[in-house]
Amino acid sequence: MSGIVLAAMPAKMSALISVNAPFIFALLGVGLVLYAVALFLAAKQRPINTYVAWTAIFMDDGWVIGSVALLVFAPTLFSPSGTWLVAIIAAIVAGFAVAQFLGLRRGT
Q: What is the dihedral angle through the alpha carbons of 84, 62, 71, 31, rounded to the nearest 10 degrees?
């Protein structure tokens, strides 16, 4: 969902977060949509490809680590609403990573 919003409204998201980079937001949005499609297709496979599952987990972990790094080392980069948005999305992505890890451990 966030990928679609970023791709469709990069200027609005850029203004909300107070980072003047709508082109980067558009690219990020398209990348997130492609990532979501790849995850959807991978999730439909039986059995689940463990390499793809681990890759998704590590990519989610990278997103969370990158988000935390930006919030810690560049705290003035974002507006207050942008800071909250980055933190909330990082928490949601962390939840996805945990769910993917638990699903992989269960073997489903």
A: -60
Only one residue has tokens 């979501």, namely: 36
- Specify the pTM: 0.83
Amino acid at 47: P
Q: Hunting for tokens 């909300």 — which residue is that?
A: 16
DSSP 8-state assignment for residue 74: -
CA distance 35 to 99: 17
**Tokens at residue 49, please?**
């490809």
Q: Are 7 and 36 in contact (CB under 8 A)?
A: no
pLDDT band for 92, please (50, 70, 90 cuts).
very high
Identify the H or E element spanning 56: helix 50-73
- Crossing angle, helix 50-73 and helix 22-44, to 10 degrees? 150
Start-to-end C-alpha separation, the chain = 24
